[in-house]
Amino acid sequence: MPPSIHTHAITVGETEVRKRYVSWSRGEADREWTCLTLLAAHAPGVAPRPLRRETEDDAPVVVMERLPGTPLGGAPLTTPQTASLGGVLRRLYSVPLAAVRETALGERPYGPSTLPGALGRWLSGPHDLSPCQDAGLVRTAVAAAREWLAAGGELPSPRLVSLGISDLNPANVLWDGRTCRLVDFEDGGLTDPAFELADHTEHLAGRLARFADPRALVHATGLSPDEVDRWHAYRPVWATFWLAMLLPGNGGYRRNPPGTTEMQARHVLALLR
Known about the structure:
Oligomer: single chain
Number of helices: 11
CATH architecture: Alpha-Beta Complex
Structural class: alpha+beta
Shape: globular
Number of strands: 9
Strand order of the largest sheet: 1-2-4-3
Number of domains: 1
Helix content: 40-55%
């Protein structure tokens, strides 16, 4: 089954933010602390500075500085915001790989070496599509995605060459009027910039809000021609991820308006053509 939503509690003070995680089991606090520590050392200003770690009611807490700015996502990115976000992502991806490996930080959850296989299992069914507005369309998209994943020949070989944030929900981008900054590194880890950009540009919250122009953001991030090709190849993977999340019985289906699953099915089919 696709992943469920993992919650945490945020307490915002005048100068600090306390992030209390639900449990220790998934290692979110460790990943967040490690990512913030790496960024403070090698790309200061991209993310909050980590201040200290605590335990509250036997749950892990990371305390970080409070950054200026407000979350984006209420409107499409402007040209200056796109340029700033692209530059921030490039700084993130440019953290020295040797420094990341020294921390023993592993591959991000559902990274390039694990997500395609997981999707194949999630889509293997059976699925009750009767609640869908157009069950035939959704069934066609699921079958096409499953066949494409099984073939596997069009997917790039996995690379783990950069630090990534993983979850670039628009609410995780802060804008202070001049600069974008990133928050929420609980799923951060080793990854491939092309895989990350495919994740970011296919994120359902961003696509529904038309948050970013995909090609403009990829250009602003400065991907090489080879990385752009890899980004194109990974887009159907992340589109399929959201299709799986939007199948009846899964959290995405319950949280989104009727017709969202069909919209995603059409998007997946368009990318696979």
